[in-house]
Amino acid sequence: MKRIILFLVMIMVPVLVLAQNPAQGRGQRPAGGQSWARAQEPAYITVKLWPDGAPDSNGLEGPERPMFGGRIGNITDPELLVFPAKEPNGLAVIMCPGGGYNYVAAAHEGTDMADWFNSLGITFAVLKYRMPNGHCDVPLNDAHRAIELMRGRAAEWGIKKLGIMGGSAGGHLAASASVHYTAETRPDFQILLYPVITTKGRFVPGRGFLLLGKDATQEQADYYSCELHVTKDCPPAFIAHSYDDTTVPVSESAMYFTTLVNNGVPAVLHTYPEGGHGWGFKDSFRFKREWTAELEKWLGTLK
Questions:
Q1: What is the band of 27 on the pLDDT scale with cuts at 50, 70, 90?
Q2: What domain count does the chain have?
Q3: How far is CA 298 from CA 1, 116, 234, in A?
Q4: CATH number at residue 201
Q5: Could you tell me where the DSSP H helices lie in 114-181?
Q6: pLDDT (0 to 100) of residue 210
Q7: What does the pLDDT look like over 96-118, one tens digit per residue?
Q8: Are 155 and 163 in contact (CB under 8 A)?
Q9: What DSSP assignment string belongs to 19-54?
């Protein structure tokens, strides 16, 4: 009888904890095609971006779709997956995984990086943002909301400076948040891996591209060409790209870097002779040790 009572107590405790705050939960770091919602062991904090419903819609319906390699599609309920540092050094990073604005590559461009950032004393969060699906403002609204939520818990997680990071299309989202912001949503720094920067050469009216639906206007396309909106007040940038990237040419990073520098914004650009596109935190990327070492040194200058 004592064992039965103990067992009932053990299974009721996590239920009661989650019931106290339905917008927040805990789970185990997902791997492979596993959905975040199916994780079980406590290792991170899940924060709903819009627990009462988002103020806008991307027009998608139904459950999110777990995909190969830790990718997630059909996102309608955006979340932050937060990995608080045990010994925070004051820095925090929100990571926007890539995926061509069709899905988020939540593993190699997201949760796989958490341990490394935590080892540096940096609180790390992965943003599971909504896909635009013809509604180009939706991802940026999610990124702004994520920044506001993280800042709202700065005391709890020991955050003094909050940066935004992204790879590929997620790099475009991070760069967009770094040139379009308010006093409440401006990131303190930006980290971009092989980022899409411009819509020039991509956007064709009536055909659409990535973030922009087929009904987008030239004005909207110009708004999301990040190099057109750099000012002296943009946050410092760390940029890394492979020279042989045929998906997003390294010239986009070079253009953004040059524009930042010309506006007096501190920036560094690291290029590597090979690696292609989408390497994220993969061990298969030959220069993983180099880019992470350079990023660690650069982050050390921000404290």
A1: low
A2: 1
A3: 59, 15, 17
A4: 3.40.50.1820
A5: 114-119, 138-152, 154-157, 169-179
A6: 66
A7: 999 999 999 999 999 999 999 99
A8: no
A9: HH-TTEEEEPPP-TT--GGG--S--EEEEES-TT--
